Amino acid sequence: MNATNMLFLDILLVIALLSLAWATLTATDARRSVILFIAFGLVLTLAWARLLAPDVALAEAAIGAGLSGALLLAAVQHHPRRALSSERQNTGKLANEKQNDSNPADLKSSVAIRWTLTLFCIALAFVLIWALLQALSSETSDTLAQSVSANLANSGVSNPVTAVLLNFRAYDTLLELAVLLTAVLGIFALSEQRTGYLPAGPVFNGLVSWLVPALILMAGYLLWVGAHAPGGAFQAGATLAAAGVILRLAGKRNIGLPVSKSYLNIILVIGSGLFLLVGLTMLALGRPFLDYPPAMAGYLILLIETAAMISIAATLILAFLGGRPRNREDRSC
Amino acid sequence: MIEVIAATLMLSGLIFFLCGSIGLLRLPDLYSRLHALTKADNLGLGLLLAGLALYQRDLLFALKLILIWLAVLAASSASAYLIAQYSRRQDTDR
Amino acid sequence: MLTAHWLYGLSGCLIMTFGLRAVLLNDSLLQRIIALNVMGTGVFMILITIAYRGPDAAPDPIPHALVLTGIVVAVSATALALTLIRRLTEEQDND
């Protein structure tokens, strides 16, 4: 494709993104802004593909647009009115309790404050743009990117993004799995799961009966292919979680999570646990933490990624349930 | 020659997409909008993918595209049915 | 500097600031969470733009890995925040 055509595509994409972002943020109805946000995520996927970031595009489609969208839609569904309009009265009520403060609701609606904050945002935009231009126009030496490509042969995988995530910067990914675990513990502490959905009719059941196996197969493929092409544990975990979400929406009792609480706990921690175990084994073998021997690296990465995929999928499904699972024995839902 | 056929297929696919989008914007109620969107867009996508497959001339690539098309067909027809069913229930409840 | 850098870099900055303004000024908690997500997206866009080296060169994989991590952390934070909102409204309903 020649440069003029590409420029045309770029301009169209950028206009679509900016207007969708603006529409998402200025919509008065919460449901409308959720739906616009999903559309924004899908157009963003195209932008990532255009900027030669296919790994990010896959993750955005599955997680950014797909699962975030499902979570937000479920939230709107269950609190259509409260989530939208009652905040103002509540902040007002709060302020009355602390009498010496002025009322935050009044503050927020005051025109002067709105304009000051808007001006602040505009100023911030200019600073950001200036900083970005500085960063892009200076000739960077990219020593980091060069050392990635120099060491790629020893990393055990040939997809550079997977190599960075699970080998060169494995620390970050280990901590990220810990963040996921913390989030799911927070969700468990806050609430029980939402009530389930009604059993689906024949058409939806027909879709579920082949879509769910197809999604599981797809997740396995994404996990495997991540070693040498776009894909990996995050995309695979999100695909598995999508299968769980579909089963949940179809009103199934079993949505892929183990019934027993101890098994559930095991699959939640297996990702970070196995990762940590591999790291400690390296320490015991006299290597630095999480520094795999090149001959073993490919197998170790696949092992860690499989465990991470299971934990990520379970975390995302539990996030969609909205709390700790109820005992399956009482058939209240 | 094959490129001309591929281009024609893609172009006609795009026309179906355009019709579907016009239908979505212009038709009066939910049911006819769903009808325009799912039918026209599924056919449009099929033609577009057929054109792409011809253009690439790679069997594995073509098979992947067919797989995508089948997944979209099933998902869009089932979701159109579900949306219509939901809306109909709401109407009869009222 | 490439044209794509200009276009996507600028819109990344703009999307981030749009998002920040909505986080500060929106009344609805749910819409503030959406705004936070949009703001994060703007940051991701800046990172991916920096990684881009033109149509023929391989992009820098490190920002890509950072953004992947960011997307997953963003969805877990969103899930936690939505559960917090649900608990909050339940508590207010009980009052």
Q: What form of chain A results from the Cα inertia axes? A: globular
Number of domains of chain A: 3
Please report the number of helical segments of chain A: 14
Query: Which outline of chain B best applies?
Result: elongated
Q: How many structural domains in the coordinates of chain B?
A: 1
**Strand residue percentage of chain B:** under 5%
Structural class of the secondary elements of chain B?
mainly alpha
Low-confidence runs of at least 5 consecutive residues of chain B: none
Portion of residues in beta strands of chain A equals: under 5%
Average pLDDT, all residues of chain B = 89
Major sheet attributes of chain B:
none
Rg of chain A over CA atoms, rounded to whole Å, is 23 Å
Count of strand segments of chain B: 0
- Give the helices and strands of chain B as they follow along the chain: HHH
Distance between the termini of chain B: 58 Å
How helix-rich are the residues of chain B, as a percent range? Answer: over 70%
Biggest interface and residues each: A-C, 94 and 75 residues
Can you summarize the main beta sheet of chain A?
Answer: none
Q: Please write the string of helix (H) and strand (E) elements of chain A.
A: HHHHHHHHHHHHHH
* Rounded radius of gyration of chain B (Å): 16 Å
User: Helical stretch count of chain B?
Assistant: 3
